[in-house]
Amino acid sequence: MGEQMGENINIQGYLENVNAPWGQLFYLLVWHNIECEGKRILDFGSGFGITADHFARNNEVTAIEPNEDMLNYRICTNKYNQIVGGIEQLYSLPNQSYDMILCHNVLEYLDNRAELLSQFKRLLKPDGILSIVKHNKAGKIMQKAVFDYKIDEAMDLINDDKAKSANFGTINLYSNEDLIKYSFGAFRIVKVYGVRMFFALQSNEFKMEPDWIFKMYKLEAAAEEIPEFRDIAFFHHIILKHS
What we know:
By secondary structure, this protein is of the alpha/beta class. It has helices spanning 11-19, 21-31, 50-55, 68-71, 113-123, 137-147, 151-158, 178-182, 212-223, 227-230, and strands spanning 40-44, 60-65, 81-84, 98-104, 124-135, 162-165, 169-172, 187-195, 235-242. The strands form two sheets. The chain has a seven-stranded mixed β-sheet. It has a two-stranded antiparallel ribbon with strand order 6-7. Helix 2 runs parallel beside helix 9 and helix 6 (137-147) runs antiparallel to helix 7 (151-158). The longest helix has 12 residues, at 212-223. The chain starts with 10 loop residues before the first helix and ends with a strand.
């Protein structure tokens, strides 16, 4: 999708996914590594507003989302400022105006990553935190080979950095270290957590059991920083700060 983030989305499919048990678990696992209260937060690429709404309980949140159709399903049980648009909206925001910026599963669909990270650097306070969630190539290969049993696609992905999403089209994969390159060294990585290490490889029928979310949450949270498991997670949650 390049710079025009938010086009060609299968909104109904995405909505079903985030409301499913595995979608709910994804958010719980990401949120538990973001501890904040009384902070100013920017959620860029906010989607249905699930994360913005969650953190708006105890924080002042601004959410930016380019796809107006997604906002028709926006969650807003807590008050936060919703802006429609993309990177262009960032330029009007004051320097050093946020304690934390959230950018979850967004950079895979942008060509102008360096521009975005430059704006994040400008908008973050000196001690601010940047939270990035990204697809992890090894984890996607594992899912293709094991859960989907699409061995040819898994082999293709070993030699390519483009994957397919049922709801978002082409995913342009990048490494964790690329974040430093895109920001020209403006940020440093302080933490990397694995998300969806185990449950991406399970049959969906198990995920419908009443206690599945509770049990899998405990397992994933216990293993999220163990390198052997983290390296094959479907997603990586990366915490960055100013260099």
